Amino acid sequence: MELSTILQPECTSCATPGSKKKVLELISDLAAAQYPPLSSQEIFESLIAREKMGSTGIGCGIAIPHGRLMNIDQPIAIFIKCEEPISFDAIDKQPVDLLFALLVPAEQCQQHLSTLSSMAEKLSDKKILKQLRKTTDSKELYQVITT
């Protein structure tokens, strides 16, 4: 699946959220603004429920928060670059500055895992990470992550 089919430019942001809770709220707000049937509260609760099972901070300054929602029929992605890294309880104990969030229909487990896997692979490319971290605005961030 092409990333540009699930990640809209409006769901890509350079931000300064300050904390794990605030960045998950930002992700929820961005998704809800673009997909009106969703409420930011239900998105936030889905992301928090997953974080309670274990942090989605995968190391190297990257987190991949994700959740399942009952009332969507296609995956929704949100990409955030934090201006200042935030504590995220990552496996390597390092702060996080890049977050790829994925919301999927509750019944699409396999597609969910496949998309997460391909994004983790993309974010393991040091060249892409360097480009992402050098971006200064949301438009540039979107271009880098979707190419």
Automatic annotation (TrEMBL):
GO biological process terms, semicolon-separated: phosphoenolpyruvate-dependent sugar phosphotransferase system
Transmembrane stretches, start-end: none
InterPro entries: PTrfase/Anion_transptr, PTS_EIIA_type-2_dom, PTS_Nitro_regul, PTS_SugarTrans_NitroReg
Highest rank taxon of the organism: Bacteria
Gene Ontology MF terms: protein kinase activator activity; protein-N(PI)-phosphohistidine-sugar phosphotransferase activity
Domain PTS EIIA type-2: 1-147
Protein name: PTS IIA-like nitrogen regulatory protein PtsN
Organism field: Shewanella gaetbuli
